[in-house]
Amino acid sequence: QVQLVESGGGLVQAGGSLRLSCAASGRTLNTNAMGWFRQAPGKELEFVSGISWNGGRTDYGDSVKGRFTISRDNSENTVYLQMTSLKAEDTAVYFCAASGRTSGREVVPTARSTYDWWGQGTQVTVSS
After folding, report:
1. What's the CA gap between 128 and 125, in Å, rounded?
2. Where are the beta strands (DSSP E) in 14-77?
3. Would you say residue 41 has pLDDT above 90?
4. Span 51-65, mean pLDDT?
5. Cα–Cα dist 28/78, whole Å
6. Of 77, 99, 79, 78, which Cα lies nearest the Cα of 69?
7. Does position 6 have pLDDT exceeding 90, yes or no?
8. What's the pLDDT band for 30 if we cut at 50, 70, 90?
9. Which residues have C-beta within 8 Å of that of residue 46, sequence separation ≥ 6?
């Protein structure tokens, strides 16, 4: 059973930064793509960023390109999302996800349906 636990969310002023972490347990996810999604109140789940199993490929949603950076530490079974220049519209619950079907493939899935395990989410609130 895979468990993903997000941390690092909180309240920050516009223009500030936060770093989210997602720690995996239950099995190693070192060969799986990982991703971050977010959901704002009243809105659909949105792809934020993803990273291939070895970090060789990354992808970002248009709204966060140039401001967010995803990385991973396979020795710690952890993926990170560094968020800078935060805006009020970044306010959402951020979810970490892992894709079981991408094992060993250097791909970055962006569709929600391609991720098999999800964390409970961490709230990020950006005050303007």
Report:
1. 10
2. 18-25, 33-39, 46-51, 58-60, 68-73
3. yes
4. 97
5. 10
6. 79
7. yes
8. confident
9. 37, 38, 39, 40, 61, 63, 92
**Is the pLDDT score of 86 beyond 90?**
yes
Question: Looking at residue 4, what is its pLDDT?
Answer: 97
The alpha carbon dihedral of 61, 112, 53, 108 has a sign of negative
Kindly state the average pLDDT of the residues 7-33. Answer: 95
